[in-house]
């Protein structure tokens, strides 16, 4: 925290040196209708899957990245009961929505797939990224640069983590769609790095740097400058026409109306020629609202499923990986007035917790409603909302240890080990996850009975579900 405060103070000290955002998003050719890195591209993969598995990775620096990585490892090691080729639950993931620290893990997995389990710990989780960025900032040659502090981070992420990869490189149809989320600083709207959002800017996402998107998603204001993207003149995109239709359908939902207002504002590319993107945690620190807004802005789950031309899945599964901490405060143990940083942290933490609690309640309720919308008497759809946070750690000492891991870009080996193990433990022991595995096993047993006319898998020795 002292290092972060020092960075903030130094940033303010150097604030008199005007810096300019580096624009690196290319215009989209007029009438170009290729889907690119978009929902349309991934819809074919989802068309017949019996399960719709969505993940959401929260903010929280490397702490969040490590916890999310632990969840991915557990999904890798969990086999789908009764699958013919012993598929992993990891391969069932349709989409990952992420903000801030969670975006590093989501983007790395989106780019490299299983390679994440070979080198990600060394490349990012166990590397002192924070120290490397501070050393760059303290380099006198960088003090009066007009490119800003974020460009130093983008350069570092590009060279050491993402190796110059673009969203064109991340278009792996054997992997999930990754929604890296930032916040539009001027409008407050959530902004996702997918082609549907870039269509609103008449811009092409395929050549855009993954490192730059992750930098935007984790660009804490003051500490880092916004990532700037250009809003190009009208390219004949149908996106704005679609938004006008959406406005009518969401008029009774104030939060969705605000989202539409923000997205429609991109049509005024004279007033909003350059969009300044910062930490996605400002608009949603859980990464859950991307899933919610995409479904609701498409008219609900029934209409969204119809647009995707997919068969309704048997199960809607949403796993939320929340790395938020609740460290013990000492403020109330003395009459001493809290410092300005302590007061600011306390106020922001309260707002963040309340907004996150509202988001969790909204999404959990919506998931049940979505399942009901696409259920039929012949085929009911079952929802599973799996919320993972440090409250799920049963032992008090490990829980206290995890709640004291600071938000930054550096972990000790002990912190990294504990967080990775916690991700697996939280998922493995969650009641809804255990229900999911048991239900998958029952389905497998019934399929086996129908196919053989004999014993089900659950009737065989050693096949009982715990």
Describe the model:
Helix 3 runs antiparallel to helix 5 (116-125) and helix 7 crosses helix 9. The strands form two sheets. Strands 2, 3, 4, 5, 7, 8, 9 and 10 form an eight-stranded mixed sheet that branches. A two-stranded antiparallel ribbon has the order 1-6. Mean pLDDT is 87; it is low at 12-16 and 460-466. The two termini are 43 Å apart. With 466 residues, it is of the alpha/beta class. It contains 17 helices and ten strands. The chain is globular. The longest helix is centred in the last third of the chain and has 35 residues, at 340-374.
**Mean pLDDT level:** 87
- Record field, number of beta strands: 10
Poorly predicted sequence stretches spanning 5 or more consecutive residues: 12-16, 460-466
Secondary structure: helix percent:
40-55%
Distance between the termini: 43 Å
Structural class, judged by helices and strands?
alpha/beta
β-strand amount:
5-15%
Biggest sheet, open or closed, and with what strands and sense?
8 strands, mixed
Number of helical segments?
Answer: 17
Shape, please?
globular
């Amino acid at each position: 925290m002292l290092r972060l405060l020092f960075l903030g103070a130094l940033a303010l000290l150097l604030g008199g040196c005007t810096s300019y955002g580096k624009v690196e998003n290319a215009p989209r050719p007029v009438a170009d209708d290729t889907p690119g890195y978009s929902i349309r591209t991934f819809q074919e993969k989802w068309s017949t899957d019996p399960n719709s598995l969505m993940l959401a990775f929260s903010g929280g620096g490397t702490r969040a990245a490590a916890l999310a990585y632990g969840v991915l490892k557990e999904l890798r090691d969990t086999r789908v009961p009764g699958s013919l080729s012993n598929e992993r639950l990891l391969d069932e993931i349709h989409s990952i929505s992420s903000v801030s620290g969670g975006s590093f893990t989501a983007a790395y997995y989106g780019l490299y797939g299983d390679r994440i389990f070979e080198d990600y710990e060394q490349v990012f989780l166990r590397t002192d990224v924070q120290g490397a960025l501070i050393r760059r900032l303290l380099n006198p040659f960088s003090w009066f640069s007009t490119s800003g502090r974020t460009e130093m981070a983008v350069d570092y992420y590009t060279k050491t983590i993402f190796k110059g990869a673009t969203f064109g490189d991340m278009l792996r149809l054997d992997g999930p769609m990754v929604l890296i989320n930032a916040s539009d600083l001027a409008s407050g709207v959530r902004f996702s790095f997918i082609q549907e959002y870039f269509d609103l800017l008449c811009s092409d996402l395929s050549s855009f740097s993954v490192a730059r998107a992750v930098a935007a998603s984790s660009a804490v204001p003051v500490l880092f400058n916004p990532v700037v993207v250009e809003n190009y003149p009208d390219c004949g995109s149908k996106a704005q026409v679609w938004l006008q239709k959406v406005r009518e359908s969401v008029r009774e939902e104030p939060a969705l109306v605000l989202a539409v207002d923000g997205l429609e504002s991109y049509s005024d590319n004279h007033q909003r020629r350059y969009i300044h993107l910062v930490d996605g945690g400002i608009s949603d620190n859980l990464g859950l609202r991307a899933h919610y807004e995409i479904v609701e802005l498409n008219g609900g789950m029934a209409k969204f499923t119809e647009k995707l031309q997919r068969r309704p899945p048997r199960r809607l599964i949403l796993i939320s990986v929340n790395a938020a901490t609740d460290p013990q405060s000492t403020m109330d143990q003395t009459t001493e007035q809290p410092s300005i940083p302590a007061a600011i942290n306390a106020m922001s933490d309260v707002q963040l917790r309340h907004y996150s609690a509202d988001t969790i309640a909204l999404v959990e309720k919506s998931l049940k409603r979505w399942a009901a919308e696409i259920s039929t008497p012949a085929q009911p759809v079952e929802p599973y909302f799996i919320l993972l946070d440090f409250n799920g750690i049963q032992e008090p000492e490990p829980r206290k240890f995890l709640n004291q891991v600071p938000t930054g870009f550096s972990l000790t080996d002990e912190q990294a080990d504990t967080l990775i193990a916690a991700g697996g433990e939280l998922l493995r022991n969650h009641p809804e996850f255990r229900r999911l595995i048991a239900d998958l096993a029952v389905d497998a047993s019934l399929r086996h009975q129908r196919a053989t006319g004999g014993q089900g898998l659950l009737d065989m020795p050693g096949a009982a579900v715990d």
